[in-house]
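Record 1 of the preview.
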Amino acid sequence: MGSLMAQWLAAVFSHPDLAGALVIAGKTALIYIFLLVGLRLLGKRELGQMSIYDLVLVVVIANSVQNAMVGQDTTLVGGIVAAVTLLLLNRALTWLMGLQPSIRHWMIGDPVLIVRDGHLLWGAMKNEGLTREHVMAAMREHGIGVLDDVQMAVLEVNGEISIVPKEASVHRSRRHFRGLRVQ
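->
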């Protein structure tokens, strides 16, 4: 019984050597950066309006990069090294975005005007990967059925579409907001 327990503990707490752990951390960091850039290039629509094929893509990517991050290492510590690396990189990126507005701007982007006075702004929609159906669905969610009833629609940085109806009252604010792009 004691031998079985010792074998089990040895298997559970086996670990890569320091060089192996550093390789796992390095590969994990490179994949994290690659995926950040790749997902950012997909556009904001991918974040807020994930379809079934987007979900499949995320699952398949997760499975494929897992092997690239840890390689043949199946140890508990190897998995923890990869997870800690991802958590630390995410925290570092959040910290950097707080310090550098240009990094925050590149990673998060700006809200984009996609409808003005009932007219679709096709150039902006094309740049963001939006279709007329995306806008119409957002309008229906806001209880608006006709495009002419929309004063403006904005693709927010989180991928959601905000709709301002034509009859909406305008309230002035003392705050100055920058960043709404009109394309």
